[in-house]
Amino acid sequence: MNQSQRVEEQFALEPSNRFYKISLFVIVLFLIFWSATSVNFNGIEESSLQVAQSIINGILHPDLEFLFNFSNSGVLYLLFETICIAFLGTIVGAVLAIPFAFLSSYKLMPKPVAYVGRLLTMAVRTIPSLVYGLMFIRVSGPGPFTGVLTMSFISIGMVTKLYIDAIENLDTDILESMTSMGLTKFEQIYYGILPQLFSYFLSIVIYRFDMNLRDASVLGLVGAGGIGAPLIFAMNSYRWNEVGSILIGLVILVLIIEFFSNKIRDRLVKG
């Protein structure tokens, strides 16, 4: 095929591509206008501007005594509790996600088994974290343990999905030689697959911990421990100076964790 024929084919395809782009643009524009019609501005009152000013003023002038309080009710202790909830939940969820991931891999398991495993993983991942938190509060009561259980369950779903992607991209040629040596399926996974996946799995766990730290802060709103409960109490009582202290602590904590997690993940990918 010469150059002129390629040019002719390109111009022949352009009308269809143009129609596709225009259709997509019209659909997106329609969805934007349709979504905008559901927005109700009747809830905005005259005092809303004053409340907004109070919020901004409280954030800009935080309660420093509350921020640097080292007691059990201070921001620093509550942030430490939030880190512990996110860390334990991530570790438990990451460990439990390993068998789910291998059972859900089409490369390692028969298709019916892998399909059932993926279906269970999707079901676990579908339920929001707040719903898990409300359910576990009925079981174990309010407190950090409920937060750990919730973090564990929501970590299983997402971490399993990322594990599966790593396993599917794995070079499994080594398994053939291990099969000829008479190794069992478990020995093939332990000696031939896990060493290759360790760095990927660890990077996924660090990434999930970064996400769980934010979710743990929100879970406190339903009584699952951490800094979320004092935050909602301060907001309901219009103590915006305390809200500002909590938000400053959260921002600094997230920035520090994200900085170190990015460094570790980059080192794992390069090394």
Automatic annotation (TrEMBL):
Membrane topology, from the record: Multi-pass membrane protein
Any one of the GO CC terms: plasma membrane
CDD domains in the record: TM_PBP2
GO molecular function: ABC-type phosphonate transporter activity
UniProt xrefs under Pfam families: BPD_transp_1
Compartments (UniProt record): Cell envelope; Cell membrane; Membrane
Domain ABC transmembrane type-1: 79-261
InterPro entries: MetI-like, MetI-like_sf, PhnE/PtxC
Source organism, top-level taxon: Bacteria
Transmembrane segments: 20-41, 75-103, 115-137, 189-209, 216-237, 243-261
Keywords: Membrane, Transmembrane, Transmembrane helix, Transport
Main location: other
Similarity comment: family membership: Belongs to the binding-protein-dependent transport system permease family.
PANTHER family xref list: ABC TRANSPORTER, PERMEASE PROTEIN CC0363, PUTATIVE-RELATED (PTHR30043:SF8), PHOSPHONATES TRANSPORT SYSTEM PERMEASE PROTEIN (PTHR30043)
Listed name of the protein: Phosphonate ABC transporter, permease protein PhnE
Organism: Jeotgalibaca ciconiae
